[in-house]
Design brief:
Elements (H helix, E strand, L loop, with lengths): L1 E4 L3 H13 L10 E4 L3 H4 L16 H9 L4 E5 L11 E6 L7 E4 L12 E4 L2 H10 L4 E4 L4 H9 L5 E5 H7 L5 E4 L13 E6 L14 H17 L7 E8 L2 E9 L6 E8 L5 H12 L3
Parallel strand pairs: 1-2, 1-3, 6-7, 6-8
Antiparallel strand pairs: 3-10, 4-10, 5-8, 5-9, 11-12, 12-13
Helix pairs in contact: 7-8
Length: about 290
């Protein structure tokens, strides 16, 4: 069984986590890793939203999956479009890491001086920074985590915003400040690792048991809301679901790109079966069209 992954340091660590989870497979399904370069890896300068956003790091993996070159794609779930590529199946989601963002900086967000330069490539993070700290300078920052950390270390930025899960998986020991996900709402799927196979592949049965149900319940809600809203990568939108007793707590945040306004939404759900109702309620409350 050939696992396809991007070649970044984080992607390789996540592929190793997938290999570890797949360790109990029969010998004839012994997995091996194949590195695939995506358009998002080749072009590290263009803002992601200008490249099409969702899918720039996963489209090539889907293509290789459908051609039979690989048998399983290992993705960061937050990079995947809410609508799967026809012919593919999200067969399992591994246990979720931290879902929130962190500010890599010696000072927390409230203590950064006016005019401090904060780097990020995410439209959601840019809008949140402008909304919460309009006195800061928000600057474009592309590249893998190592590249972004190196640019922060050499002083190009006073602070940068990254996903907590990525730093944790890489074991990066840098000063960082957690950004409360209840306020600084993360994107759908952040912190989760997805295993994608071809639809109808009989070997999927040997992988499906790896699906971590508490994580799957939450990310299915997040991705379902995103799909029902028809949200594109150009929209600053956070969607975060977390376990809440027997149900799920959903928090959503929609901002203007310039951060001048923000609309929030919270609801308790039983599960993915409530997504359509919740999305309709959000549209009504937000005036989303």
């Amino acid at each position: 069984m050939i696992l396809g992954t991007r070649g970044s340091r984080l992607a390789m660590v996540q592929a190793d986590l997938a290999l570890e989870a797949l360790g109990g497979l029969p010998e004839d399904l012994s997995p091996e890793i194949k590195v695939i370069t995506t358009c998002g890896d080749r072009d590290r300068c263009t803002p992601l939203e200008a490249m099409g956003g969702y899918g720039v790091f996963t489209k090539e993996l889907d293509q290789r999956l459908l051609s039979g070159e690989i048998d399983l794609a290992v993705n960061s779930l937050k990079d995947m479009p809410s609508a799967l590529t026809p012919g593919t199946r999200l067969v399992a989601v591994l246990p979720r890491g931290p879902s929130g963002d962190v500010l890599v900086s010696r000072a927390d967000l409230s203590a950064l001086p006016p005019g401090a330069v904060v780097g990020t490539s995410s439209v959601r993070r840019k809008a949140l920074l402008k909304h919460l700290r309009p006195d800061l300078e928000v600057a474009e920052l592309r590249g893998n985590i190592t590249t972004r950390l190196n640019r922060w270390r050499r002083g190009d930025y006073h602070a940068i915003v990254l996903a907590d899960a990525g730093l944790e998986r890489l074991g990066e020991n840098v000063p960082r400040h957690a950004l409360d996900p209840g306020v600084w709402v993360p994107p759908a799927g952040q912190g989760a690792i997805a295993l994608v196979c071809r639809e109808g592949d009989e070997r999927a049965g040997a992988i499906a048991h790896l699906d971590h149900l508490p994580t799957r319940r939450c990310v299915d809600v997040e991705r379902g809301v995103m799909l029902e809203l028809g949200a594109s990568c150009q929209v600053p939108l956070g969607i975060w679901a977390s376990p809440d007793g027997q149900g799920i707590m959903l928090r959503c945040l929609w901002l203007s790109p310039d951060g001048s306004w923000a609309k929030r939404y919270e609801a308790r759900l039983r599960g993915a079966q409530d997504v359509l109702k919740v999305a309709e309620d959000m549209r009504s409350q937000w005036g989303w069209s």
